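Late entry, evening session. Most of the bench is empty. Finally got around to the prediction I had been postponing all week. Sequence below, unchanged from the version circulated by S.P.
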Amino acid sequence: MAHYAFLDENNIVTEVITGRNEWEVVDGISDWEKWYGDFRGQRCLRTSYNGNYRGPYACVGAFYDEEKDVFIPPKPAEGWVLGPDYLWYPPSE
């Protein structure tokens, strides 16, 4: 199964669901990002646990960076540093 993230108007993830795989065609529907987005009236983008789609797996509160086409998880605390893999790392002392 595939996973899809719904975004608000500020590109913040509001929900992640399990849905159809992108290669599945049902009743002529094959663009599942568009279908789920239209159904919910919210922008919808594919995400994946293994990072094959848009960097780290999307979680509620994550930010979608359109320029980089990745989901960036919420910053855990002040001082944490965003790594090249778009994950947060604690500050080094």
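Two things to note before I forget:
The chain has a mean pLDDT of 94.
The beta strands are 2-7, 13-19, 43-47, 63-65, 70-72, 81-82, 88-89.
Will write this up properly tomorrow.
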